Amino acid sequence: MEKVRVVHYLNQFFGQIGGEDRAGIIPQMKEGPVGVGREIQNESKGRFEIVRTIICGDNYAAEHLEEVEPLILKWVDEIRPDLFWAGPAFAAGRYGIACGTMCKAVQQKLGIPVITAMHPTNPGVEAARKEMYIIETGDSIRDMKRVIPKMVALAQKILDKASIGMPEQEGYLPRGIRVNVRAEKRGSKRAVEMLLKKLRGEPFVTELPIPHFDRVAPAPPIADLSKAVIALVTEGGIVPKGNPDRIEAHNASKYCKYFIGDLNDLTGEAFQTAHGGYDPVYANDDPDRVLPLDAARLLEERGLFAKLYDYYYVTVGNVTAVASAARYGHEIGELLLKDGVQGVILTST
Amino acid sequence: MDELLIRKVRVQDVTFGERTEIIDHLLRINREELVRYLLEDSHLKSVEIKLARPGEKKRIIPVKDVLEPRAKSGGTSTTFPGFLGTAEPVGTGITCVLDGVSVVTCGKLVNFQEGLIDMAGPGAAFNLFSKKLNIVLVMNPVENLGKHEHEKAVRVAGIKAAHYLGQAGILAPFDEEIRYPVATCPELEIAYRGLPKVIYIDMVIAQGLLHDNYIYGMNAQGSLPVFLSPTELMDGAIVSGNCAAPCHKNTTYHQQNNPIVEDLLSEHGKTLTFLGAIAMPVRTTLLDKERMCTQVLKMIRFLGAQGAIVSEDGGGNPEADLMMLARLFEKEGIKTVLVSDEYAGRDGASQGLADVTPEADAIVTNGNGNQYVVLPPMEETIGHLEAIDVITGGHTGSLRSDGWIEMEIAGIMGSTVEVGSENLMTVAI
Questions:
Q1: Structure confidence by residue, pLDDT tens digits, A186-203
Q2: At what angle do helices A36-43 and A144-159 cross, to 10 degrees?
Q3: What are phi and psi of A152, to 5 degrees?
Q4: Chain B nearest-CA residue for A179
């Protein structure tokens, strides 16, 4: 059987460099397998050969994704392996996001098959599940022995273009793709059985889980608006001309903060939108349409509120994973509170 | 205690003959007599009657409705009340059913919501109608008839034919008799004390042309929710004039043979008490949705329901009603199961419902209507094959030059029917 050449991605811990204290290390590449890589080779009965192992610190990957991703893509492109293997990441969030992001990039940009594994709650799942097979793991390294054979088996099927079974058979996390199948019983019978279970207080499983939306309780109103500092925040992608910090047009990996303390109006000469999810013509023509600085200044002048905060925060809320959006919201909120801001006008597109 | 006796006459084949009668499980139809009866309606220019049996390489398109032949034996009420004879309440007495037969209304498109039935090939796997002896009425309206009048003429013709054929069964020996007691609430309370009381909410679209249903012959557009005993449904108390996507149109046949009613009745007196059904009109405005849903809540509180099954009709805006009911019921502690289908996109990756609520924690799905299928040519088309390019689920180019058709199963009658008559469902992969 022909050897499958594999590149393996690991974090500093699984790459046997160190713990949290070494989470800042820059990406490095080693010849051959490291740590769990040997188990992978054994489990594949020698079919898989790990030709290189790429190791990167969790913090470094999380904070410099825009630099790490192209670098790793370049390395992988030079090696041209048959398979890119990341993790397993278990419940480690930064590691999971790195595994998911790297796999997605390698698969989409280089067309090389990928495999990874994580715990269902790992934020990396949300970042990548629709695009690839992620083997479900427990929340810690204790599950390694069970997970590796599943990853090897599924990877072989992907490489051999064999038909891939249901999530529970193969052990992967459902990608959220719904396919029609024939049930043993007709819909009405299943409904009656589900109702009986519900009435008896027994566990039941809905056939169509609905997306769970977080309800955020509104903050109490500002007691005296005339004394309040108000900030402008938008997900509409309004950035200084040229998009200096390169906020992505979709699935933004960051939010940014820009000074507007000396401006009364946003013009198309100095600002633009970086958002890829709506017709940009009107926003580029007059960015106030998305980030209403002109109107806010007018209200400030009339004394409706005490002062407009000197900066605005911006991200792009276009196909942006809910997990990242929630994080940006929390962080921006904390920063604004620290700066004495009492209210926010949050514009959305 | 009142009761309904359903007498089923099993029909194994159908042919044309000199008299309309059933002898030895063979249904003979006097074609001229039936055509003459249907042409009494001056809105119809022509009616052709065609037969389509399971396994025959025939494709019926565009289908408007499907009905089961049923007629009352004795008594003063009639099946399909409010359309034929009086609007006297039905659901008691004797009802004769031609088991294995259905009447299919077909002919020139009224609009573009009508669907397809294949009697053979992969398309025949998608609905129960492909397994029936279908008596197809191919109807042409008179010139310049308005769409509403056209729809009404073909709807009523279907009812007349189903009743006419049902009457032929009265004289034939029946093969099976099912006895359904019709109990009042106090009777149920005494008989089944301690069993949880369950109500069935049968949503019926009431939104205009090809988006209407009729309760006792009355357009549900003008109605508040109506309480029905399970047996009233069996006698045709609800007639469908709805075609909002063929895959999830609850046809008149589905209402006569409502599987949720059947499956609740099979548990009735054992694990639950089945109180009955409420037909709830589904309108378009928020005010109307709130009006209907709160009226339903009011009624089921009076009835003392502890559990509810709600079936959707159509898709899109009716999901707002579906979710509103789940929210209202669950807040009252009434355990609720919703029965729906999905439009999750051809790739199955989209959110399949237009509205959701956290209270909707128990949903049965009858499949994704966007599944794409390729169906082989048939030897005979009953109706108008070119309609495939414009009906829901089809698209320009659906009818390929090689005679095959490609379409979404949204265009196949009852493929994802939301009363749960079929076995289709989705799973996430």
A1: 999 999 999 999 999 999
A2: 50
A3: -65, -45
A4: B426
Overall domain count for chain B: 1
Using alpha carbons, select from B373, B375, B364, B357 the residue that is nearest to residue B426. B364
d(CA B71, CA B20): 14
Distance CA B108, CA B115 (A): 12
Q: Which residue(s) pair with A313 in the sheet? A: A233, A257
How does residue A321 score in pLDDT terms, banded at 50, 70 and 90? Answer: low
Q: What is the 3-state secondary structure (H, E, C) of A228-242?
A: CEEEEEECECEEECC
The residue among A112, A120, A56, A67 whose CA lies nearest residue A85 is A112
Give me the sign of the Cα torsion angle A297, A301, A302, A306.
positive
The model's pLDDT over B132-179, given as tens digits with 9 standing for 90+, comes to: 999 999 999 999 999 899 999 999 999 999 999 999 999 999 999 999
Q: Does B243 participate in catalysis according to the annotation?
A: yes
Residue range A318-336: mean pLDDT, rounded = 83
- Taken in order A284, A289, A295, A297, is the CA torsion positive or negative? negative
Higher pLDDT, B386 or B80: B80
pLDDT at B242 (0 to 100)? 86
Using the Cβ of B195 and the Cβ atoms of chain A, whether some distance falls under 8 Å is answered with no
pLDDT score of A123:
87
Question: Per mean pLDDT, which range of A136-140, A266-270, B377-381 is the poorest?
Answer: A136-140
Nearest CA in chain B to A208: B363
CB contact under 8 A, B335 and A176: no
Measure B73 CA to nearest chain A CA, in Å: 29
Residue A1 confidence (pLDDT): 67
Contact B106, B158 (CB under 8 A): no
- Domain contains B346: yes
- What's the one-letter identity of residue A225? L
Domain boundaries, chain A: 4-170, 225-347
| Residue B358, preceding peptide bond in cis (omega within 30° of 0) | no
As a whole number, the mean pLDDT across chain A is 93
Is B426 within the bounds of a domain? no
Cβ distance B259 to A185 less than 8 Å, yes or no, reads no
Q: What residue numbers bound the domain in which B322 lies?
A: 2-411
| A311 vs A333: CA distance, rounded Å | 13
B260, B367, B429 ranked by CB distance to A191: nearest: B260
Question: Is residue B382 domain-resident?
Answer: yes
For residue B16, name the pLDDT band (cuts at 50, 70, 90): very high
Report the 10 Å Cβ neighbour count for B18: 10
pLDDT in tens, B97-140: 999 999 999 998 887 778 999 999 999 999 999 999 999 999 99
Judged by CB atoms closer than 8 Å, whether chains meet at B348 and A179 is answered as yes
CB contact under 8 A, A208 and B421: no
Q: Would you call B411 an interface residue with chain A, using a CB distance cutoff of 8 Å? A: no
Give the pLDDT of residue A213.
64
Q: Is B183 on the interface with A (CB under 8 A)?
A: no
Question: For residues B147 and B154, what is the distance between their CA atoms, to the nearest angstrom?
Answer: 11
Global pTM exceeds 0.90: no
ipTM of the complex: 0.97
Question: If you measure CA to CA, which chain A residue comes closest to B350?
Answer: A177
Q: Chain B residues with CB inside 8 Å of A183's CB? A: 423-425
Could you say which of 3.40.50.12710, 3.40.50.1820, 3.90.870.10, 3.40.50.2300 is the CATH number of the domain covering A4-170?
3.40.50.2300
Would residue B351 count as lying in a domain? yes
Q: CB B360 to CB A210 under 8 A?
A: yes
